[in-house]
Write a structure and sequence with these properties.
This protein is an all-alpha fold. It contains two helices and no strands.
Length: about 70
């Protein structure tokens, strides 16, 4: 039996301006559809993000934090 392809998520989740995760290198569509992808599609994503740097590079930055909502 084949081993399922696991997620490349590193729990460093934030999207850059191009909507690519700075933690794992997946696009927002790849993240959203990961569970419904077949193993071949997952393997293709893993091949692309295999060498993604562990820490964010200087060209990327996380989205700014949302301000606290006004208190009532």
């Amino acid at each position: 039996m084949d081993t399922p392809v696991t997620s490349p998520c590193r729990n460093l989740c934030a999207l850059d301006a191009a909507r690519v995760c700075i933690g794992c290198g997946r696009t927002i569509d790849e993240i959203v559809h990961w569970r419904s992808m077949g193993d071949d599609a997952r393997a293709a994503v893993m091949a692309r993000v295999r060498d993604f740097p562990v820490s964010p590079s200087p060209r990327t930055s996380p989205l700014p934090e949302r301000p606290d909502p006004p208190s009532s």
